[in-house]
UniProtKB/TrEMBL annotation:
Superkingdom, natural source: Bacteria
Cell wall-binding repeats mapped onto the chain: 961-980, 981-1000
A Pfam short name: Choline_bind_1
Name the record gives this protein: M6 family metalloprotease domain-containing protein
Alphabetical keyword list: Repeat
Kinase as UniProt keyword: no
């Protein structure tokens, strides 16, 4: 591999001084490969003059160099810094580089090139090899954002002249290791990596492309890019490095790419006239939405072309004849589809698509046409789009991802070298028969725009209740908001960890039914009154997943799949069973049909491959209609006394069942003009039926209207509601029909005024009366219990039959629920529940051990709290009369002990100190086992011998003494370690003598053969006369010698003078 020539620079390219992000560069080769030894591979001599010593030094310049003139090619550092507007300054750290020789020390991987099937394995082995070769490397320099992970690891596998194929483990890409891996000596670990082999190092285009992925950029080329060179299959082409690049001919990323990296705010604007500036010199791009989509939007972006082809450092060069350069300056118009963002343009939908002339193909387009010259410009192609909603992509319309014309029109009205001015128009709801988004006066809507997985809608009077579920499993959240026709309430939490099943409304009361999956499943009905909070009303269990709630005749009814379908009626705060179970197998769909204010039950039985309708006769549900095939969608509405049921087949076909108070229900198939439906929802207003459907093909939502007397004839109402939704619900409120939908993870509510009032709820002539319900059982929850010193009050589930009674329907008390043995639960019904039910549960002896209690700890014997001394796990503890472990100083039986605190280096919290311990800056000794001085662990005082040495401890405080100590009328000296000193001691410039017992001597004393004399303070005398005796410089008394003119005899006494 031969790197392209570079302008002359210093041989060593330093790391950028202003770097705020860093990546580690790892150059590797495979087992058995000697490339890199001698003058080979990246260590080969640089062939273009003396600019660099090796090819690797040229590569370092491509990474860390700074563009300084037009003759300087772009580098990774300069490119990232430029396109991020200085926000990201990436340095490449190269520990394998030897600046004295210009060489790189290759890391050798354990496997051959052919043995690696995935880049993750190459990267993981590269990190391991680096950590083994450079164990002291401080990886903390690589963590620019403080998340504990290296900003990136660039792995460069040596591939010689063998260019990897697409899909090869060495093909350039960005990924992660799957789990963080150790990196050098610090706690910072490797996770994200990019891989670019040596055959792709010519120019920084590939390295820059992969590096942008690290910061959030998506691939903008389509999967399977074989046709790119033929000018097709290019949704973005040369306008973004994430789609295409020419090695050294680099371009600005699109504004959406820079926004994904967090480097560019993208303002959303309405119809109007705007001016945009060139990249880096002002607002470069804006977003605009079409009323036909709640999730997709369009970006209008100005790009200024560089026409000086001699400027090697410039971005967005335009050179006719060069397919890797842009076509000129102008305004780009492109669609952004957030649903496709995770896969970029490599999935079955494009995340980003640039509109151009000459496109062919269906809704997505073939990526054909003149992509290089797709810009709008003054004097060139000046406008794009059409307000004729019947036109498509091939007609020059600005379309949504499903091919529907957005109705946007963009026209350039002015242009300079540094800016473009344009006007954008979009269709109004009235002009295009559009459905209006439900927003308040400021255009706001509280419904979530991401992560929505389900939605349902209900109406009462002029208000609409919409509930949504975000997330799944334990992370799911159900919330709801109310739209009164002009303003929204805030989005209120209903439940978490549960799935949304259905909603209903009546008067000021609103209901949400959820399910928590388990064994069995638990269905909970929540209620909101007025603007109050949502609260749980009642819950029931069911063996299946299907559930429904509806208000009929002013009463809320709940259907639950439970070995059949059980109907319940809400009586106050309890769910009372209504009749026996509707017999069926696996339930595919449920609905409640309002027939003159009396409920009928519709069930799709997947097991029996049939759909039926049941009405209550006495205490039994009687089937009054059936249809072959299990419907996978049921919804209902009523007009007057007649109920209507929409039945959606699994193939998307459907029909309408009319159910009068008397007589046999009648089924009418829908005409072919109504699209085959993925989802369907029925509403009624002003004596007409309205059916909202999400089409199986493309998922566009439309609404269809029919007269109850002509159910075979349906006409579309307005244009489509939204471009794509796999969840749809329709209701009538006031004079409007509302459609709720979920598309691209966003929930929306749209409406259209139909000029007629919604149907009024019917009231049955003989409303059913609630009756008292007897409690039948109580189940203690939570499994076995063990003694813990407190009262056990386990949660209980109380049932009346198989219906779970709400907590408001009973009182519960406990007996004998503290000590080991059998405890009793007594439940007494209240309100509309009567009777008493009992249960027992065992309290077993627990395991001995520590139990955290408040801010302290107790030792449980399993049936009581230990007090006094405790020996556990080789340690000794003292527990007070209350059973709590004591720490710090404690006086027990006339002795003083020290029990270790929470943070100490000597042993567990609360354990008794033994031997030497330092506390509060002072040393103490606590008696060891077998000590003759006192109990083990008790604090030592006075003289104690330890380790063959004597120490003195204050007779009151127990603190170890150092220095001079007076005791028993004598002085002693203790060293800095506390050990008693004997023999000669020099202290403060004076000598002292301490005998074998440590006592300081004064007056005359003999040491060995010599006599010495110390004054009353113990200081030894020297070079002086003491009476008739002379003490020499060593302090020893002189004998049998002249001292000056004086003779001292053998006894040391002065006897004569000469």
């Amino acid at each position: 591999m031969l790197l392209a020539p570079r302008p002359a620079l210093a041989q060593t390219t330093p790391e950028p001084a202003d770097a705020n992000r860093r990546q580690l560069v790892l150059v590797v080769r495979f087992a058995g490969d000697a490339t890199g030894d001698g003058a080979t591979g990246l260590n080969a001599a640089y062939p273009y003059g003396g600019a660099y010593r090796t090819q690797y030094e040229s590569f370092l310049r491509d990474l860390n160099g700074e563009v300084s003139s037009k003759t300087t090619l772009q580098t990774l550092y300069s490119y990232i810094k430029t396109v991020s507007l200085g926000q990201c300054r990436l340095a490449s750290v190269t520990p394998q580089y030897d600046a004295s020789t210009g060489r790189v020390a290759y890391l050798t991987l354990p496997g051959s090139r052919g043995s690696y099937r995935a880049s993750e394995s190459i990267a993981a082995d590269a990190v391991k090899a680096f950590s083994a070769a450079y164990p002291a490397f401080d990886a903390s320099v690589l963590d620019g954002n403080g998340d504990g992970l290296a900003d990136n690891v660039l792995v460069v596998p040596e591939t010689g002249s063998s260019v990897p194929q697409v899909g090869d483990a060495c093909w350039p890409r960005r990924s992660n290791l799957g789990a963080p891996a150790s990196l050098g000596s610090s706690g910072v670990r490797a996770f994200d990596y990019t891989l670019v082999d040596t055959t792709h190092l010519a120019g920084v285009g590939t390295v820059a492309h992969e590096t942008l992925h690290v910061f959030g950029a998506r691939d903008l080329y389509r999967g399977g890019s074989a046709e790119i060179s033929q000018g097709s299959n290019m949704p973005v082409g040369v306008w973004d490095i994430m789609a295409q690049h020419g090695g050294s001919k680099l371009m600005w990323p699109l504004a959406i790419t820079r926004a994904d990296c967090g480097w560019l705010p993208l303002d959303t604007v309405d119809a109007g006239t705007y001016t945009l500036a060139a990249p880096g010199s002002g607002r470069q791009a804006v977003a605009v939405r079409s009323p036909l989509s709640d999730s997709e939007y369009f970006v209008l972006e100005y790009r200024r072309a560089n026409t000086d082809i001699a400027d090697l450092s410039a971005l967005d060069t335009s050179q006719e004849g060069s397919l890797m350069t842009i076509g000129g300056s102008g305004l780009l118009v492109y669609r952004v589809n957030p649903v496709a963002k995770p896969e970029g343009n490599k999935g079955d939908k494009d995340y980003v698509y640039l509109f151009r002339s000459g496109e062919t193909g269906g809704p997505r387009g073939n990526g054909a046409g003149d992509i290089r010259h797709c810009q709008l410009s003054l004097g060139g192609r000046e406008s794009l789009g059409s307000q004729d909603l019947s036109l498509g992509l091939e007609d020059g319309a600005i379309t949504l991802s499903d091919g529907q014309n957005s109705g946007l029109v963009v026209r350039v009205t002015g242009q300079t070298d540094n800016s473009v001015t344009f006007a954008v128009t979009k269709p109004s709801s009235a002009d295009a028969g559009l459905w209006t988004r439900a927003t308040d006066g400021s255009g706001a809507c509280p419904l979530p725009s991401t992560n929505v997985v389900a939605s349902d809608v209900a109406a009462s009077g002029p208000s609409v209740l919409q509930a949504v579920q975000t997330g799944v499993g334990s992370g799911s959240k159900v919330s709801a908001a109310v739209f009164d026709g002009t303003s929204w309430s805030s989005l209120a939490a209903v439940a978490s960890g549960q799935d949304l099943k259905a909603v209903a409304a009546s008067g000021s009361g609103r209901y949400v039914l959820t399910v928590a999956y388990g064994s069995p499943n638990r269905f909970t009905l929540y209620r909101q009154t007025g603007s109050g909070p949502w609260s749980s009303v009642a819950s029931v269990t069911g063996s299946g997943n299907a559930g429904e709630v509806a208000v009929v005749g002013g009463t809320a009814y709940v259907l639950v799949e439970d070995g059949g379908v059980q109907a319940y009626r809400l009586d106050g705060s309890r769910l009372a069973t209504v009749g026996a179970k509707v017999p069926c197998g696996y339930v595919a769909a449920l609905a409640v049909v309002d027939v003159g204010g009396v409920p009928a039950v519709a069930v799709s039985d997947f097991s029996a491959s049939s759909t039926g309708l049941w009405r209550l006769s006495g205490s039994l549900w009687t089937k009054v209609w059936s249809h072959a095939g299990a419907a996978n969608g049921l919804s209902s509405a009523f007009v007057g006394q007649t109920g209507y049921l929409h039945v959606k087949g699994q193939d998307g076909s459907g029909g309408m069942v009319s159910v009068a108070p008397s007589g046999t229900p009648v089924y009418t198939a829908l005409p072919s003009s109504v699209p085959a439906a993925l989802e369907g929802s029925l509403a009624a207003s002003g004596g007409s039926l309205y059916l909202a459907v999400s089409a199986q093909s493309g998922n566009a939502v439309t609404v269809w209207k029919a007269s109850p007397s002509k159910l075979g004839t349906w006409g579309q109402v307005g244009s489509r509601v939204v471009g794509s939704s796999d969840n749809v619900g329709a209701v009538a409120a006031g004079t409007r029909v509302y459609v709720a939908s979920v598309g691209g993870g966003a929930a929306s509510l749209r409406w259209r005024d139909v000029g007629t009032a919604a149907e009024k709820p019917q009231v049955p002539t003989k409303p059913e009366k609630p009756v008292a319900t007897k409690l039948t059982s109580v189940e203690v929850q939570g499994g076995p219990r063990t003694w813990n010193g407190g009262a056990h009050t386990p949660v209980v589930i109380v049932k009346a039959g198989n219906v779970v009674v709400p907590a408001s329907g009973y009182t519960v008390s406990y007996k004998n629920n503290v000590d080991v043995g059998t405890a009793k639960v007594v439940v007494v019904g209240k309100g509309s529940y009567v009777g008493t039910v009992n249960a027992t549960f065992a309290i077993a002896k627990g395991r001995p051990g520590w139990v955290a209690a408040g801010s302290g700890q107790r030792w449980s014997t399993g049936s009581a709290w230990q007090t006094g001394w405790l020996r556990a796990a080789g340690q000794t503890y003292w527990l007070g009369a209350d059973g709590y472990m004591r720490t710090g100083w404690q006086d027990v039986d006339g002795q003083r002990y020290l029990f270790r605190g929470k943070e100490n280096p000597y042993g567990p919290e609360g354990s008794m100190g033994i031997g030497w311990l330092k506390e509060g800056g002072f040393w103490y000794i606590f008696r060891r086992s077998g000590s003759p001085y006192g109990p083990v662990g008790s604090m030592g005082r006075g003289w104690l011998k330890d380790g063959g040495k004597w120490y003195f401890f204050d007779r009151s405080s127990g603190r170890m003494a150092t220095g001079w100590v007076a005791d028993g009328g004598s002085w002693y000296y203790l060293s800095a370690s506390g050990a008693m000193v004997t023999g000669w001691l020099k202290e403060g410039g004076s000598w002292y003598y301490l005998d074998g017992s440590g006592k300081m001597l004064t007056g005359w004393y003999r040491v060995g053969r010599d006599w010495y004399w110390s004054d009353a303070s113990g200081r030894m005398a020297s070079d002086r006369w003491v009476g008739d005796y002379y003490l020499t410089g060593s302090g020893a008394m002189a004998t049998s010698r002249w001292v000056g003119r004086y003779w001292v005899d053998a006894s040391g006494r002065w006897t004569r003078t000469r």
